Amino acid sequence: MVRADLVRTATALLFSLALVSGCGSDVVDSSGSRSAANRPTHSTIQRDKKPILERFPKLGNVTDIEWDEVPLGSASSRIPGPTDYRVSGVAHFAKEDVRRLQQDYDWAPAKKPPAVVESIAPFVPKGAAWKVNKEFTSEVTGDIYTARFHFDPQGGMIVFDIEIS
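Structure (tokenized):
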């Protein structure tokens, strides 16, 4: 009886060890980054307004847009479930909408220029007099998302950076 218990315990231990050894992390090169085969891919620059305006209808009447999204974290296919994304873009507005935004909100000078995903950076003008407003951010996101909106009245644009869970 003791021998049978010992065999069962040893078998269970070996089985558990085999399970745990299969739970390794993604392949990482010596610099600590993922190998090219395991890096999450992301989309190219998007110009379709619909996905952004469906999620954020209170953004307003956007005439043109450039945006991109990248997964946050590891985006591992080994772990099921939703992935968090960072969505950055530049939304352009007609002159009447720029006036409306200026009238409807008390914009304050931004302390820092907008931070966006790397692919969007070339679309963000340098040296603009960026303005921010917490009420606008709250209304557009419904206080559901972490977001930053930088308004450039002279350029008629808003640069956005949003974390979507």
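Residues 2-21 form the longest helix (20 residues). Residues 137 and 149 are 6 Å apart (CA to CA).
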